Amino acid sequence: MADLITADRTRTSSTTEAPTQVSRTRTIDELVEDAGHLRNVTRLLGDDVAEASRQVSEVHHQAFQAQLNTKARDMAKRPATEMLDELARRGFAWRDIARLVGVSVPAVRRWRQGESPTGPHLLAIARLLAFTEILRVDHLVSDVAGWLEMPLVPEAPLTGIDMAADGRFVDLLDLATGHETPEAVLDRWQPGWHERIFSEFEVFEASDGELGLRPTARDDD
Fold this sequence. Notes:
Blueprint: E1 2-5, E2 11-14, H1 28-75, H2 80-89, H3 94-101, H4 105-112, H5 119-138, H6 144-149, H7 160-165, H8 169-177, H9 182-189, H10 193-200, E3 201-205, E4 211-215
Antiparallel strand pairs: 1-2, 3-4
């Protein structure tokens, strides 16, 4: 800043501005190098985010397994007949209960009539009931039985019942919470499912105009 003296001897001040610097034009090589650097940084950040997401998912799954096991052991204190009746009231067919517990329908019938299931079977019944309770209360799936009966994807004859019968409760949790798509869960559960299913089944148009799925016709040898 410099002081100026006018004709009437009045002292004023003014600001001395630095000259504007003209930026150098960057070469195409420099632009390419900078863009490549930004891509590398973005990739590294993406890798970090993916790893963090994987670790959080693993913690979530472990917490859910602990929650499910705790609830199942608590519910296993109830009589088997009471738990079976509760599952029936929630919309489960006896054949589905038998499949999900890993026994025959006659075995379930005997339990309903008062015969005591083995310890592992009692825990399996309680585990199924606990799972339905978690979905109903914590994840707002009001009709768990109906939800499990739906095809996971429209073009595949695989349902949540199939997945639950295979013990894939964690995958069903990811579906209920919306953390995974049905296709991603199927890829994790049955790799190559898409190619295998479409080699065994074909889509057709039914008489009512709706699309359906049926076994692919094969020529007899």
